[in-house]
Design goal:
The complex is a heterodimer of chains A (196) and B (469). Chain A has 196 residues and is an alpha/beta fold. Chain A has a single domain (6-195), classed as Aconitase, domain 4 (Alpha-Beta Barrel), CATH 3.20.19. Helices cover 34% and strands 16% of the residues of chain A. Chain A is globular. The termini of chain A are far apart. In chain A, 44% of the residues are buried. In chain B, the strands form 5 sheets. Chain B has a 5-stranded parallel sheet, with helices on one face. Chain B is globular and about 60 Å long. The chains are: A alpha/beta (196), B alpha/beta (469).
């Protein structure tokens, strides 16, 4: 997993609440057996008109989104289906972090397993960022996982909370399965205990 | 005296393998269900790291999301879907995992066949790469959906590092009225607490209305816990649970059954146990419900209307214009005036025998409205056989419903069963998200009885006034 320490990047504002994983990656793309190459399909139905043309009014199709790496969005982001394809698609598109007032549980876990940092800020702070980025298409944010801080170079600064273990794994880019396998003796003892 | 404990506390404590310092508790997983869509990358990950499946005997697979519901033997026409199904077959063989394949008499939606085969049991921990894994909690198991990386983690270690979720008690007093089902109760809960009302929590459903539900009804209720954001939903096991499980293929037998039952009785919250949140719901005033928007919390009684903007809470009003535009609805439209094009009776929410019986009772002696295309998709081959033994298929077919093979089908439209753009569907499934049942499709979530009645009248109608034939 790619470690996440400090990242600065351009911001895409997607000001909607309750964006579900069916929107992030529609079902027709879940049939693939690979883990890569989902980026071109991210938000497919919102990025394309029904006849297949690009919808220029959708933010991800606008010039400002090219090369952007920070997604700022509404509460309960990633609700619904457990499909990790949603995270693969966002990461493959180029996002390194998503900032929102809250995330759905399974989505947040999936983010952590893929080096995509899910940052929870207050509603007010998110709406502040939303205003700043809407006003300035080249607006950038720095997300610092070492200091647990989000800031820009125009005075915005906020700290965020994150579970210490998740933070550690992200900072180091750790293989969690490898960590669990370090407990092999405990797992075997548990299994033996359960069988008696 | 030890502290009174919740059902969640008891199952959790039983399954903590160890508490490694600086890490999350390691939770042992008793049963892992695998399906074709969220597993191929997990098996690839095992191969890449040179790891095996730790407990093939605790891992069970089936194909459900992609499979066609046309007669068995028809090949899967989409080559990418066909490859995904074949990939699961190959992986199951390579890693020694039991697979109920497309031709198996036990094939079905993973959350239907788990309980049906007696594999899901009280007090277990159970995971699957599917958010509706919460369904299995109806039997008193701690069952939750995971992503593909976690699928790989469980395959490799039979464990998951997990933060203990918070607990939420949903206490449902009174009884559901005639024509009001577990589905309506599930929608009422989401309406009350919101689509993120239970984020971070495991819900325990309790109270008279829950106790009086069958196991199938409890599955419907637990199934939709995820639509309120919950990690899982559960109901403490009782005599209804034991009667449901006794004699099922993988349930314990003989002396082992008696011992298991004695052990399972312990899986209930102690009097005075503390929850992180408590929600009270009254069952008796509930009417049959219909969703009008693009998330499952946007729901009103069938006797109501599409809300006006001044009837919505401040948080809800934002985005409603877009939602109504997508749904092709005007504020103030009475629900009973909404005409439909399609009906889908199926999904892990409502495709079990009891659901099909309820829908057939409504359909009996009627004909589907001429402009409506209605399909019934049993949740499993076993449900299909049982329904056919009772003659339910004939009732549906004579009424003009399509009677199809088992699978997830139009709940998420990964197979060819999808809505066309603009089509409006009364659906017994669990998500009315934009495009869920097909791009541009408009989904209204309802109970099986409400769906059957809508098929016949061509619009929503209050099932409580139905003339059964």
């Amino acid at each position: 997993m790619q470690p996440f320490r400090i990242h600065t990047g351009r911001v895409v504002p997607l000001d909607r609440a309750n964006i579900d994983t069916d929107q992030i990656i529609p079902k027709q793309f879940l049939k693939r057996i690979e883990r890569t190459g989902f980026g071109e399909f991210v938000f497919f139905d919102w990025r394309h008109t029904p006849d297949g043309a690009l919808d220029r009014s959708f933010v991800l199709n606008q010039p400002r989104s090219k090369g952007a790496t920070v997604l700022v969005t509404g509460k309960n982001f990633g609700c619904g289906s457990s499909r990790e394809h949603a995270v693969w698609a966002l990461a493959d598109f180029g996002f390194r972090t998503v900032v929102a007032p809250s995330f759905a549980d399974i989505f947040a876990t999936n983010c952590a397993k893929n080096g995509l940092l899910a940052v929870v800020l207050g509603e007010k702070e998110v709406s502040d960022i939303m205003q700043r980025t809407t006003a300035a298409p080249d607006y950038q944010l720095t997300v610092d996982l070492e200091q647990c801080r989000v800031k820009d170079n125009q005075g915005f600064s906020a700290i965020f909370a994150i579970d210490e273990f998740t933070r550690h794994c992200l900072l180091e880019g750790l293989d969690e399965i490898g960590l669990t396998l370090e407990q092999e003796a405990e797992i075997a003892a548990y299994e033996a205990r359960r069988q008696t | 005296m030890s502290e009174p404990r919740t059902l969640l506390d008891k199952i959790w404590t039983d399954h903590v393998v160890c508490l490694p310092p600086g890490r999350l508790p390691l939770l042992y997983i008793d049963l892992h269900w695998v399906h074709e869509v969220t597993s191929p990358q997990a098996f690839d990950g095992l191969r890449a790291a040179g790891r095996g499946v730790r407990q093939p005997g605790r891992t069970v697979a089936t194909v459900d999301h992609n499979v066609p519901t046309t007669p068995r033997g028809t090949p899967i026409t989409d080559p990418i879907a066909a490859l995904q199904v074949q990939t699961l077959e190959r992986n199951a063989q390579e890693f020694g995992i039991r697979l109920f394949d497309i031709d198996s008499p036990d094939q079905g939606i993973v959350h239907v066949i788990g309980p049906e085969l007696g594999l899901t049991q009280p007090g277990m921990t159970l995971v699957c790469g599917d958010s509706h894994t919460s369904t299995h909690g109806a039997l008193g198991a701690l069952a939750f959906g995971i992503g593909t990386s976690e699928v790989e983690h469980v395959l490799a270690t039979q464990c998951l590092p997990q933060r203990k979720p918070k607990s939420m008690l949903i206490q449902v007093s009174g009884r559901l009225g005639e024509g009001v089902s577990a589905k309506d109760l599930a929608l009422a809960v989401i309406r009350q607490i919101g689509t993120d009302g239970a984020t971070g929590h495991v819900i325990e459903y309790a109270g008279e209305a829950v106790r009086s539900l069958s196991i199938e009804g409890r599955m419907t209720l637990c199934n939709m816990s995820i639509e309120a954001g919950a990690r899982a939903g559960m109901v403490a096991p009782d005599e209804v649970t034991f009667a449901y499980l006794e004699g099922r293929r993988f349930a314990p037998r003989g002396r082992a059954w008696d011992e298991a039952r004695a052990r399972w009785r312990h899986f209930r919250s102690d009097p005075g146990a503390k929850y992180d949140a408590v929600v009270e719901v009254e069952a008796s005033p509930l009417a049959p419900l219909v969703t009008w928007g693009t998330n499952p919390g946007m729901v009103v009684p069938v006797t109501g209307h599409v809300p006006q903007s001044n009837e919505l809470g401040a948080g809800e009003a934002a985005g409603v214009a877009r939602m109504l535009d997508y749904m092709g609805l005007e504020p103030g439209t009475p629900i009973e005036k909404i005409r439909i094009d399609r009906v889908f009776i199926g999904s892990c929410t409502n495709s079990r025998l009891e659901d099909l019986r309820a829908a057939a009772r409504v359909a009996k002696g009627y004909r589907v409205a001429p402009q409506v295309r209605a399909m019934v998709v049993p949740g499993s081959q076993a449900v299909k056989r049982a329904a056919e033994q009772e003659g339910l298929h004939r009732i549906f077919q004579e009424a003009g419903f399509e009677w199809r093979e088992s699978g997830c089908s139009m709940c998420l439209g990964m197979n060819p069963d999808i809505l066309q753009p603009g089509e409006r569907c009364a659906s017994t499934s669990n998500r009315n998200f934009e495009g869920r049942q097909g791009r541009g499709g408009r989904t209204h979530l309802v109970s099986p009885m409400m769906a059957a009645a809508a098929a016949i009248t061509g619009h929503f109608i209050d099932i409580r006034n139905w003339q059964f034939r």
